[in-house]
Queue: 2 jobs
Job 1
Amino acid sequence: MLTKRIVPCLDIKNGRCVKGIQFENIRDAGDPVQLAAWYAEQGADELVFLDITATNEERKTFAALVRDIARHIDIPFTVGGGIGAVADVELLLQAGADKVSVNSSAIRHPKLVAELANRFGSQCVTVAIDTKYTEATGWKVYSRAGTVETEHATVDWARKVTELGAGEILLTSMNNDGTKAGFALDITGEVARAVSVPVIASGGAGTMQHFADVFHQASADAALAASLFHFRELEIPVLKGFLKEQGVDVRV
Amino acid sequence: MNLVIVDYKAGNVQSVLFALERLGVQATLSSEAEVIKAADKVIFPGVGEASSAMAELRARNLDKLLPTLEQPFFGVCLGMQLLCQHSEENDTETLGIIPEKVLRFQTDLKVPHMGWNQLHHLQTPLFEGLQEQEYVYFVHSYYVPLGEHTIAQASYPEPFSAALQYKNFYAAQFHPEKSGPAGSRILQNFLAL
């Protein structure tokens, strides 16, 4: 049986792991390679590293870090942040990343998704979608780390990038992110039903029940969390034990 | 041991090299016929799309060389699919070493089949020391049906070949280099052949 994936996410700035609370108030949560190895031992199914540095100079450091991570951990990982071109992806995959995630660059230039899928295969192309709900607009896609509203309705955009060749969707609800009040079950479920590729739910995890809910009620294939794991508010073996009891297929 | 990894611009070469490094094994990356022929063992990694991968192999004359090899050989993921006769991925004629065909998943489940899934009906020597229902990491949209060369099964939802063996050619659909301690053991078993 294919299992549901538990995915810790590490935001990286200047080679260190940080976590933004609703994309602000960044706190330092440690050395990425050590954290990654610890998560692998704890039973994380894969990891996501998001580079939130701003300049190209700092991005070169990120590729070196990706190489260091690949050298030390033996589970799959996705890297993202600031990827704008095929050459960026080539560098990161050569460094040992298994998948890359693209977000704003796919919005600016949707053909990039097709170019990446043709060149490297859909299996390594994750499209990250930041989405926010307002009563006036419904669920809309936001770009540039959630600062700019786009014209795309979230489900339509998820369908479009899947047609272009995305192999996975990483869906973050900005309304839920940092709240610890639970995942956005409605939009996650809508996207999961609308596309034929796996969907990672992100934003809002606060309790073990939240994970059970997003798997049972929203058909997510994977669930991502950051600070909850980094500050050891929730330990992965305990979470997986709980999910198994709740009838969720997990790797234990 | 002289271990060679076939170099044809496959995407996950670095991961395989690092996995071997964690086992204390140095490997040589090469597309040279003489180097590959002289190897004690050969690993053939692969991710990506079948027809482009075949074009890369042909550009290096590896499509002629690989079928002639007689030492233990291990194809991983796309590397396994390329060892078969034909792939439905862009209707591609593949290397034709293992008499099996590669099909697209026809299922209501999500494709690619991505994540950790269990192995069943394990056969030695590749799976020596592993338990039935061991979890390994898969990511693929095409599969090889069960057949007489199947040496491990997984299900999505129907059973398919998680690993194959034909003469000296071993192959895994999953990624041993990304499958934690179980994956390391499988690589070690291959190295011990």
Note: Chain A has a mean pLDDT of 91.
Job 2
Amino acid sequence: MARIISFSKALNEAMTQEMERDENVFILGEDVAKMGGDFGITTGIWERWPNRAFDTALSESAITGLCCGASVCGLRPVAELMFADFITVCYDQLVNNAAKLNYMYQGEASAQMVVRAVTGGGIRCAYHHSQCIEPWLMNIPGLVIVAPATPYEAKGLLVASIRNNNPVVFLEHKHLYNVKGEVPEELYEIPLYEAHVEREGTDITIVAAMSMLKFAQKAADEMAAKGISVEIINPRTIFPLDKETIKESVAKTGRLIVVQEGPKVMGYGAEIGAMLGEELFEYLKAPIKRVTSLDTPVPFAPGMEDYVLPHYEDVITACNEVMAY
Amino acid sequence: MALSKEHLLKVYEDMLLIRRFEEEVEVYAKNGTIPGFIHLSIGQEAAQAGVVDVLKDTDYKFPDHRGHGAIVLSSKPEERKRCMSEIFAKATGINGGRGGSMHVHDLSVRNMGFNGIQGSTVVTALGTAFNSVYRKNDDVTVVFMGDGTLGEGTCHESLNMSATWKLPLVYVLINNQYAISTHYTEAHPQKQLSTWGLGYEVPSMTIDGNDIEEVIEVTQQAVDRARRGEGPTLIEMMSYRWQGHFSGDPAAYRPDGELEAWKEKDPLKLAKEKLQEKHGVSDAEIQAISDRVEVEIAEYVKFSLESPVPKPEDAVKYVYTDREVEGR
Amino acid sequence: MSTIIEMPRYGANMDEGTIATWLVTEGESVTKGQAIAEIAIEKLSNELLAPEDGVILKLVGTEGETYDCGTTIAYIGQAGENVEESTSVEIETSNAADTIELSSDATIIVMPRYGANMEEGTVSTWFFSDGDMVEEGDVIAEISIEKLTNELLSPTAGPFYPLVDEGSTVKCGKTIAKIGEGDVAEEGEVVSKCSPSEMDDVITGKKETVSVSADSVETVTSGCSELTPKAKKLADELGVDATMLKGTGYCNMVTREDIKKANAAGALSKAGSTSVPINRKMTAMEKAIAAGMYKSLQETAQTTITMDMDVDNLVAFYKANKTDYAAMGVKLSYTSVIINIVGKALKEYPIMRTIIDGDMFKELTEINIGIAVDIAGGLVVPNIKNADKKFYSAVATELAELANKAKTGKLLENDLIGGSFTITNLGMFGIKYFTPVLNIGESAILGLGAIRKELVAKKGGFLKKKYMSFSLTHDHRVINGAPAARFLNRIQELINEL
């Protein structure tokens, strides 16, 4: 039975139910055990399994390194990075180790681990606690970057990530934690590497992940009132991208707008744009547009941060531009 | 601790095998048969052979990037030639040619492979040690590191976590004096690098890394302690690499006479003297060991030279466990 | 023995013809070479000649009806002879099952083809089982094609025998059942099968089930166009019609590669020369357009005057401003600017928007400028309300929206009524002058031609200038030549003032 719960609760349920199912699953990270996580996502797990939930020192390299080693032994670690920005201090373990283990071991063992990373801006915490880090990991073959946008996806994608044998960086957008939605009680998986067509349309394709999905949905409503039909693609897995679903959609509409929260340079928008330019040029009716943050660090002052982050109006402008081209 | 004659003969042969392995690798690296660059460990055989001698197959070993010797000795005898053919970039190599000199592994003997990033395996090793605690078994993890590795922040994270959680981990710090060209005294304030472990309340000691008997004795104590669940130990093993940082490095940064002085402390020479003087081993017996090793090494080389190169298109395999990557 | 007279094929492109008139009656004697019927093909008509001397035994075809070439339309023979009703092959265009009569006692039913893209279909349900008696027109099966399902009707009456299992996917044209007791020569080649429970998923599960009749299958599309934009451009450049090609691109779209291959193979016809003669029922819209055009020319005194407008200033204005407008999300166009100008001129010239209502002149006070939009099904004229009161950006935006709504069939009634003047543009086709037909209920329509460059003699030298020809049709009952000419001159002044 599905009931309405929050994104946070859906994540908690995914971990709890996977730990019930598989004793190789354990959690570790800074304050994830007794406190239940800085954002409360792991609440209640340590109480149930004191020997499967571990508070660590502030040592992101040690946490992710431990995950690599333990996963080669058959365990399934789920680590929390309190802020995705901290990925810089364990980058080596993710990039040089986790992403390469299956390659090195030729399929005999792999980094079957999940690093949950709390991502995104808008909480007035400045540039060390607000960044969108997916571009930093997007050209590391071997890694998987998963980005849920709804409570339903939060649970289904986290379950799939825990069960997946590749190293998964699981992005949790702070703004989504309190979003509520229908989530089945039973265990279920949403397959990785598959984008989801949130809404079908014929004139414009908007690709938007995580918190940007709501921009896309609102824009689609607004454009529909003007007779413009928008198709929305939620990638769900940001890397490796489900190119086919995006291509099928853009082949139909001939117009693409990518909405991404991070800076414009080298985000998933850049990759999708380049991919379509290369593989779908023939079908395009208008230039590809990206709606993104400015290419700056995320500033602290609310007015400044709002100025830098993507604006909803920019999505509408982009829609008008691609239709008028 | 004095080893029995048989034990000493065995580890002498081990050391000779890896010495000869490295010498042959150097020949083929210099003549261009082996691509890329090679880090040799000639002169450090006692530390590698001694530590591996103490370990069980089920113990986890993380050799460092100057660790061909530890890899070869950890491997099953019939797999050793595949360690060499991996370095030769051949399809028969233990990694199918994907890894080369810096990434040779064999999971069947829990040789976890090493890594081109200094300090990286120091934290990865936490995971295998953690696994022993989580699963309540007595497998020990040994991670090899060098004097240069200690400059990496991960060493601190690792020692701190393993000490706090009492993980069954042994840090084998082979101090071969130089991180490429920089002498350890120029990069670290401690006279003895092992004292660094004391800050984490980890039992730490510095020993003669060229004395195979001392290496085995101290390593055995550390491994036993780890198996008892008493936590990690840090052993600094003083040694010296005879070659430059990589095969072909003239090592002009070393003072005159330093190499010659260390060659007097050659671990093979020391072991041979003990065998002959204490145990009355004859020249003929030593020669017989040498002959066996030569036959063995010749087979590795022949196998490596004759093995086919990997199919280039196999490069796209094993990037992910569950999906294909596009080829050309 | 009687001889069959078939609907003739007068050319390779002819697929069917209409019997315009029978020139003979049943029982009449004819000589070889005598005209016996007039056959109409589109705008042509041709005489059908008797193939031999003899008596017209029977006229099977009916006057005014259309028959596929090769269909029997009459029998000729000797006096008193009986017609041998032959085993003709009937091809039906309804959604009754395609049949091939193999023998007199069994009718074969094949997998039908509901559209050009359909290659195979799945028998999702049989509604009758072995030996059940069926009547002509009974629904005998449900055929599914991807997301669609279709009912298959029985072509005849008799005992029914399915020859493939439910869930079987069969190529179009292959046998799937028979009606009658006779043997059948050919069994359906089953492409794939799935269990009944899997079928449930396909038919009633996650995928949407749409029930449509055969002739509307093709109109249910996924929103994809037939050609990719670049393929369309290439087809235009080559001047070929690529719409008949089977596309290999996404959504079965025709790609550049498809066109290049087909063109290299000489498989493409020149654009505009459709291989099938048009011979079909007019749509409601087409009927309305035809009636309206006729009425317009019947009920008014239309005359057209033309003027070459100097549009240097218009071009300069457009080029200077389009980028700024684009930044606002507005796509300025020559047409949109001209609408603004015409709006102004119309305000000053109420005569141009005055109509005859009974015995009254009546001024249309709102300046609502209609724009003729060429759409797939014909022509529509939505109008921009109060164009005289709007800024360039508003007119440009509204113009784009109306055109888009027209092309996607989303125009509302309000968009189409209340017009007081119309503008129609054929400039994009290189047309210079034309005689537009008045939109009913209006007294003037302005036709825009192509912008062209000309060298003009000036003070002993030459000057390069840009011209655009305006063709103004006006109802001479209301507007005389001079006021119409003054109106055009005023437009020129307004262009110069831009």
Note: DSSP finds nine helices and 31 strands in chain C.
